[in-house]
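Q: Given only this backbone (241 positions), what sequence would you predict?
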């Protein structure tokens, strides 16, 4: 408990904080992660291909059949999403997330960078008109031109959004504290963002599994919800002072 309290104090003492979040943040909301034994990639041959621009172009039905399983429209923000949002009442908070589920936005965090896009934004590849997810889950064809629909996410083989990179680097450079939560921290260039942090910036890891990175100063290895539940209580106390 002392370790949790120490890290909570660091977070609450920050003025400009950045959260780097991954799939482990959303598992509490019932969304499977990617790389665990029960994750989306489990028992799949070359799963990265199924989420690639090559698959979308060459085998659109295979792409569509695979990506539909990534949708969990009934999932709701959990204690981690909501606590990060609540922290905005006392600090400047930026969220840079690998997740494409949109739950940080649904929690109404004010400053979210969806580094890899948002799976709930759907558009036609030809006419660029937008579609609701409900329609996409029925058919991947545009009603106007019968062209292919796709989610606005960065697929393997596609470049990242340049504005997301620029804005992420700026947020990291200005942060006095960076908190990495729920990620294997193996996907690049997301994992290299902390290289832009100041030498004085505290970098915290809150994760079920350890991550080796020489820039990480403090670690809590265990259920993230335990720390965030306690953090939420502390935030409420500060709000009532």
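A: Predicted residues:
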């Amino acid at each position: 408990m002392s370790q949790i309290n120490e890290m909570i104090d660091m977070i609450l003492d920050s003025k400009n904080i950045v959260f780097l979040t991954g799939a482990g943040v959303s598992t509490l909301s019932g969304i499977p992660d990617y790389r665990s034994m029960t994750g989306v990639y489990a028992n799949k041959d070359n799963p990265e291909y199924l989420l690639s621009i090559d698959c979308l172009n060459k085998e659109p039905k295979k792409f569509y059949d695979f990506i539909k399983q990534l949708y969990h429209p009934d999932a709701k923000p959990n204690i981690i999403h909501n606590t990060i949002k609540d922290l905005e009442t006392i600090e400047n908070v930026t969220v840079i997330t690998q997740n494409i589920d949109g739950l940080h936005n649904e929690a109404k965090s004010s400053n979210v960078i969806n580094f890899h896009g948002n799976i709930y934004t759907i558009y036609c590849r030809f006419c660029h008109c937008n579609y609701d997810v409900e329609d996409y889950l029925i058919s991947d064809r545009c009603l106007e031109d019968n062209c292919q629909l796709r989610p606005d996410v960065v697929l393997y083989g596609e470049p990242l959004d340049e504005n997301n990179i620029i804005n992420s680097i700026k947020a990291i450079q200005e942060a006095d504290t960076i908190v990495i939560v729920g990620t294997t921290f193996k996907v690049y260039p997301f994992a290299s963002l902390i290289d832009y942090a100041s030498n004085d910036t505290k970098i915290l890891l809150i994760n079920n599994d350890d991550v080796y990175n020489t820039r990480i100063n403090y670690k809590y290895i265990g259920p993230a919800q335990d720390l965030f539940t306690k953090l939420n209580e502390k935030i409420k106390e500060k709000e009532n002072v």
